[in-house]
């Protein structure tokens, strides 16, 4: 029998392919294009010889920030005093890596910090640890001037606060004829951000206006109303109630210009008969009676920090 010499010789078992021969099952298209065209395959960072596994450069270590202040107060004690939980609960939060100080996760129970200087977050939410910080919600009655001290002797916010040693800021203003929610605090940075339109903190108003309300009023307000100091547009608008000759509408916007709600509704042909601010960011007026104040809770303060980007 004649042998068929046209077949390629078999590769002995255990031996590799002949020099220049592709291994069985490997396709040429798996090589880079320039290698298939006769060029050299590119050398990758970290490899020493062609064919060796590519070694990626080691990532630089993230520097550890030392947040410990030997003259400070133990972190778990401050968290417990701030109402986060019992001392044991706060210790567990730290041990579980759920507490950050100045952006650094803290897991050691012996860490001391300065509550007036350092920023602490639990599960990503900022916690106020400075006992001297004050955060109040105040329901301003109609006829009260939004100032802490009126030179003309008119009724002002101070008349409702009693004798206080701390200096408080009011977040934004309400004109004398407007009622509703004012936030009072001695946290100047937070107060600035809450009232500055660049940070987009929403304020919600209930306005009683002359009716009837046309269907396109909301669209006009969202598209923008031209005022003498520039255009203004609302973030949201809805009709709450409508009766013959008047209607109750909700206006939400982040603008802080003087009398902005009254001016834009008047320009739209629906003068305001009465106006109440019901919300500032995540804080609601709810059932707080006119002339009364209440201290904001820990969760509310954390929500304000988040709304202000702090």
How would you sum up this structure, described in words?
With 310 residues, the chain is of the alpha+beta class. It folds into 3 domains: 73-127, Structural Genomics Hypothetical 15.5 Kd Protein In mrcA-pckA Intergenic Region, Chain A, CATH 3.10.290.10; 135-197 and 284-307, 2-Layer Sandwich (Alpha-Beta Plaits), CATH 3.30.70.580; 202-280, Alpha-Beta Plaits, CATH 3.30.70.1560. Helix content is 18%, strand content 25%. It has helices at 33-36, 75-81, 87-95, 158-161, 188-195, 217-223, 260-267, 298-307, and strands at residues 73-74, 99-101, 104-105, 112-113, 120-122, 125-127, 135-140, 169-171, 178-185, 203-210, 225-227, 230-232, 236-243, 246-253, 272-280, 283-284, 293-295. Strands 7, 8, 9, 10, 13, 14, 15, 16 and 17 form a 9-stranded mixed beta sheet that branches. Strands 3-2-5-6 form a 4-stranded antiparallel beta sheet. Helix 2 (75-81) crosses helix 3. The longest helix has 10 residues, at 298-307. Residues 1-9, 11-20, 22-48 and 59-63 have low confidence and may be disordered.
Distance between the termini: 91 Å
As a whole number of angstroms, the C-alpha radius of gyration is 34 Å
CATH fold assignment of the largest domain: Alpha-Beta Plaits
Query: What would you say the CATH architecture of the largest domain is?
Result: 2-Layer Sandwich
How many DSSP H or I helices? 8
Order of helices and strands: HEHHEEEEEEHEEHEHEEEEHEEEH
The major pleated sheet works out as:
9 strands, mixed
The domain count comes to: 3
User: Care to count the β-strands?
Assistant: 17
State mean pLDDT (0 to 100 scale): 82
CATH superfamily of the largest domain: Pseudouridine synthase I, catalytic domain, N-terminal subdomain
Report the CATH C-level class of the largest domain: Alpha Beta
Helix content: 10-25%
* Class inferred from helices and paired strands: alpha+beta
Tell me the β content: 15-25%
Low-pLDDT parts are 1-9, 11-20, 22-48, 59-63
Shape: elongated
């Amino acid at each position: 029998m004649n042998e068929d010499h046209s077949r390629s010789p078999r590769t002995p078992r255990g031996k590799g392919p002949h020099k220049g021969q592709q291994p069985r099952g490997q396709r040429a298209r798996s090589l880079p294009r320039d290698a298939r065209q006769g060029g050299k395959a590119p050398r990758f960072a970290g490899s020493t010889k062609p064919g060796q596994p590519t070694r990626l450069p080691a990532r630089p270590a993230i520097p550890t920030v030392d947040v410990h202040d030997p003259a400070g107060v133990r972190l778990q004690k401050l968290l417990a005093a701030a109402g986060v939980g019992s001392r044991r609960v706060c210790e567990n939060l730290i041990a579980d890596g759920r507490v950050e100080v100045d952006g650094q996760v803290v897991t050691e129970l012996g860490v001391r910090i300065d509550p007036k200087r350092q920023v602490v977050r639990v599960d990503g939410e900022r916690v106020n640890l400075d006992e001297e910080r004050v955060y109040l919600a105040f329901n301003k009655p109609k006829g009260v001037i939004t100032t802490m001290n009126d030179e003309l002797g008119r009724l002002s916010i101070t008349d409702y606060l009693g004798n206080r040693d701390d200096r408080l800021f009011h977040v934004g203003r309400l004109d004398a004829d407007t009622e509703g929610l004012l936030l009072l605090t001695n946290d100047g940075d937070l107060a600035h951000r809450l009232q500055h339109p660049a940070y987009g903190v929403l304020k919600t108003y209930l306005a009683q206006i002359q009716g009837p309300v046309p269907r396109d009023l909301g669209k006009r307000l969202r598209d923008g109303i031209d005022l003498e100091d520039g255009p203004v547009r609302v973030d949201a608008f809805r009709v709450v109630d409508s009766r013959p000759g008047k209607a109750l509408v909700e206006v939400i916007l982040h603008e802080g210009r003087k009398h902005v709600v009254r001016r834009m509704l008047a320009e739209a042909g629906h003068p305001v008969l009465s106006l109440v601010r019901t919300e500032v960011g995540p804080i609601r007026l709810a059932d707080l009676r006119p002339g009364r104040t209440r201290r904001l809770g820990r969760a509310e303060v954390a929500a304000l920090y988040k709304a202000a980007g702090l």
